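[#protein-structures] MJ: dropping Pseudouridine synthase here for a structure pass
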Amino acid sequence: MSKASHPSFVTLPSYSDCRNVLEFLVKKFPHISEQVWRNRIKTGKVFWRDGGVINIDEPYQPNSTLGYYREVPQEPTVPFEELIITQNDHFLIAHKPHFLPVMPGGQFVNECLQARLIEKTGIKELQAVHRLDRDTAGLVLFSTNPATRNKYHQLFAERRIAKTYQALASINSSEPIIGKKWHVKNHLKRSQPKFLFENTTQSDIGQYAESIIECIAQSQTKALFSLSPITGRTHQLRLHMQHIGYPILNDRFYPTLQPKQPDDFHNPLQLLAKNLSFVDPVTKREETFKSPTDLEF
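AK: finished. structure tokens for Pseudouridine synthase:
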């Protein structure tokens, strides 16, 4: 059994029909049995954020925050190293390798970028400001200071941060597309299974998504694209590449969901978060950071 080195937290909603904390946890995390939660509570693996002990019949407390330690029977290992690009009193930028999640989730509890960086830097307050898909490599911004954390969250909320990605796709060799640009504006809606999304023109059932895509190089069989997302929807770039007819190489989800199998470390998704640019909300300086890697074209 692998137990997370650092706790996860969840805030109890202001309204719930749950009578106690145990009921809330069972309802919030239906894939975890009631007996497992009972055992975790009894062994002190669930607690109030201020350190207060929780009992089996602990009453539900609206707007209070619970801490808990995630556990999985066997945690996979990702055989690639992260790299710290820059670090200061307010933020840290790291390069995330393919296959490594940014945050704990699913079968990953300690094998994630945030846990690795906390271990490497000793900064327990380190927290990711945004996410990348586990399959995607590239730059991730972390807050190192709780006092200024919200300022960096606002960069993303107010779209005051510029992100550029690279992607590789298969092409027809007789089709010259270098310099061709696409400005994709559509909506993304939930698909089946529910972790997938799909492109749609129906604004009433999807979230607005916008990307600018340009082909910057091509060979006989592949093309390299530069992608600038205007919005930040889940799987947006993967879906927009599919939308223009060039699905990203080695995509396990799109255009066709592949059977679940162990990670193929030799054939990662060909998508890289290459650049981050923003005006630092603390120092007011313009900052630009680049991933030290490129996709192999």
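MJ: nice. Helices lie at 21-28, 34-42, 113-121, 149-157, 236-243.
AK: one more thing. The CA atoms of residues 186 and 201 lie 6 Å apart.
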